[in-house]
């Protein structure tokens, strides 16, 4: 899979511009969210340039069955094309910054990195079980990890506005309900190259892991949910 050099430049420029323009002056430049984005962009670009690298990193059940378990992680750092990459990384950037501080007291300050990587792994497990014997199944992208971040944010701020297609404002909790319903429906319908199951399980991991790590988040969520005007 290849894209033109012009698209490479545009993709990187858009991502970097968004990060620098929206970054508060007192916000650390190399926070964990930004580090994940940088690594993901670099790995995706390298994979686009080198088909062998792309094929080695993508999630492919027969290869996993032969012992290449690292694909549970590596598939989350490559993307189908520039728009796939930009959509995931923009989403990760805006919501990751908002929640990563919640995990800083874990793993010597790198709890958010562990949370994100585990989300990518856990989100893929149901798909692997379903397609374990399929030689035609492939999956890639950070959507499992990004969904975990997004749903953890919704747990913290259920009535915060999320802008659908960057235009339509919708309360986060309503977005979550619609997102889950759409993912279940689309997964059952099939006929799509999108791994809706990974989206759904990534979101579930984000909610469950956050509650386990910070149990007080659950009463906070319930109180916020019942008090939309406050």
TrEMBL record:
Presence of keyword Iron-sulfur: no
Residue ranges occupied by any Peptidase S54 rhomboid domain in the UniProt entry: 67-213
Keywords: Hydrolase, Membrane, Transmembrane, Transmembrane helix
Chief localization: membrane
Keyword Transmembrane: yes
GO CC annotation terms, alphabetical: membrane
Localization terms from the record: Membrane
One GO MF term attached to the UniProt entry: serine-type endopeptidase activity
Pfam families: Rhomboid
Chain segments annotated as transmembrane: 7-23, 29-48, 76-95, 107-125, 137-156, 162-185, 197-218
Membrane topology term: Multi-pass membrane protein
PANTHER family referenced in this protein's UniProt entry, alphabetically: PRESENILIN-ASSOCIATED RHOMBOID-LIKE PROTEIN, MITOCHONDRIAL, RHOMBOID PROTEASE
Similarity annotation: Belongs to the peptidase S54 family.
Protein name per its UniProtKB record: Rhomboid-like protein
